[in-house]
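Project standup — Tuesday

K.O.: blocked on the structure for the chain from last sprint. Re-posting the sequence here as requested.
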Amino acid sequence: MLLLDLNAPVERHDEPYRWAVAHSIIPEPTARILREQLPAPQDLHPAERTGDGDKTYRMAVLPLIHRGAHEPGMAKVGEKWHELVSHLQSDAYRDWVNRTIGIDVTDTMMDIGLFVFRGGDRISAHTDKPGKRATHVIYLNDDWRREHGGHFEVRTGPDLSISPYATVIPGGGRSVVFARSERSWHAVAPVAAHAPQFRLTCQVEMWNLG
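H.V.: unblocked you, prediction finished:
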């Protein structure tokens, strides 16, 4: 069974920063097994930040890899997740990121985690920390409708009263990969309270050494 399709169709964009949407980089049969091998809800760590900081959020997280090393969360997921994590750290995957957004991530350290968003969960507009070189957010839900919320928002600045430059529905085999810069504003819209399932993502973060 194909785990990562590094020849999957890609839509590349250069404005307002370098980002791309890949379609079915994880084929649906594989995504279905990953969903079946998710950890128990009690193994997820609630993460919330409120207030007037530069980034606010609410979600649940299970770290799998931190700076290239296994986290305890790896013991909570199934075999297919272990295979995925291995593939996401491969030279072939790093080359795919380079080809897709034109950023060399050969020498980066990786963080990989499972992020779960329930009704009302969201992330405010931010650009990511300067030490991050690129991020790839892989959506694992098969059927996710626009009215369920939780869209990835490509933004031109921090003001959420301004409409997003573009939005991506977080499901149906889509994933978003983008280069970090001072202009890489992005957000996650709140998941609708009536969404019939949790918003499931595998997130790959590529960090500079040191």
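K.O.: great, moving the ticket to review. The CA atoms of residues 77 and 204 lie 16 Å apart. The chain has one domain: 10-38+68-207.
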